[in-house]
Amino acid sequence: EHTGDKPRRVLLKLSGEAFGGGAVGIDTHVVRRIAGEIVTAVDQGVQVAIVTGGGNFFRGAELQQAGIDRSRGDYMGMLGTVMNCLALQDFLEQEGKATRVQTAITMGQVAEPYIPLKAIRHLEKGRVVIFGAGAGMPYFSTDTVSIQRSLEIHCDEVLMGKNGVDGVYTADPRKHADAKRFASLSYERALVDNLAVMDASAMAMARDNDQRIRVFGLEGEGNVTRALLGEQIGTLVSS
Ligand code: UDP
């Protein structure tokens, strides 16, 4: 929980969809915009760590449907997340921010290995830390990794940036016009009612360790900055 004297530290999850702008590959306009919004918040003293998804390149489960071994497909998915890290890193560096990419699969030429204490030091120095390659393990998701990294490096909140939806609703707002957005809800309700915020293993890990999550929409101009600064947009999931 964030208290007044400690700087705010957050874990921002950006899905692959955010990087691809809905297509395969990188939509540089979107990534540049998000990078700019991150810089605005970092300049105001927020410590920002990021976990990137990779669905804009590969998802292991989809590759499996196409006949590729599940674990190998998952590794392909994890490698995709690293390309997103590098794209975001580039735009942040262009804006004059110091960054470090840390990956769960070692690849010394492009990133540091994941070393939690080092990540914390980077954050304390005002560097943006971008975590890639998920957990380095097949059968995991970057949502679950977001909760895990946030717990390990002691973030106040996980900020789940979403495309096409700006919080958690009573039903899918794209299908039900009368769906209502929750301002807040419990882990239990999200799990039991199967409200599609993130995968169940991520939600269960958050519940078991009391990790606050804010689900918000990435699309509105300034939303990323608002979420990073702690504005109460979207939906808060907590105990
Ligand atoms: N993945 C994995 N282990 C992890 C994280 C990711 O195997 O710890 C693989 C998995 O195949 C997944 C893909 O990487 O489908 C891309 O990640 P994810 O689907 O979580 O990205 P997003 O949906 O956020 O774009």
UniProtKB/TrEMBL annotation:
Q: Which residues form a coiled coil?
A: none
Please indicate if the UniProt record lists Transferase as a keyword.
yes
Q: Hey, which pathway is this one from?
A: Pyrimidine metabolism; CTP biosynthesis via de novo pathway; UDP from UMP (UMPK route): step 1/1
Write out the catalysed reaction.
UMP + ATP = UDP + ADP
Task: Cite the Pfam families for this sequence.
Answer: AA_kinase (PF00696)
The way its activity is modulated is described as: Inhibited by UTP.
Q: Which GO terms describe its molecular function?
A: ATP binding; UMP kinase activity
Q: Where does ATP bind?
A: 13-16, 55, 59, 163, 169, 172
Q: Per UniProt, which keywords does this protein have? A: ATP-binding, Cytoplasm, Kinase, Nucleotide-binding, Pyrimidine biosynthesis, Transferase
Swiss-Prot/TrEMBL GO biological process terms: 'de novo' CTP biosynthetic process; UDP biosynthetic process
The domain of life is: Bacteria
Q: Which top EC class applies here?
A: transferase
- Residues that hold UMP according to the record: 54, 74, 135-142
Cross-referenced Gene3D superfamilies, in alphabetical order?
Acetylglutamate kinase-like
Q: Does the keyword ATP-binding apply?
A: yes
How is this protein organized at the quaternary level?
Homohexamer.
Per the entry, what this protein does is: Catalyzes the reversible phosphorylation of UMP to UDP.
What family is reported? Belongs to the UMP kinase family.
Q: Which PANTHER family does this entry report, sorted A to Z?
A: URIDYLATE KINASE, URIDYLATE KINASE PUMPKIN, CHLOROPLASTIC
The name under which this protein is listed is Uridylate kinase
Q: What organism does the UniProt record list as the source?
A: Bifidobacterium magnum
* Gene expressing this chain: pyrH
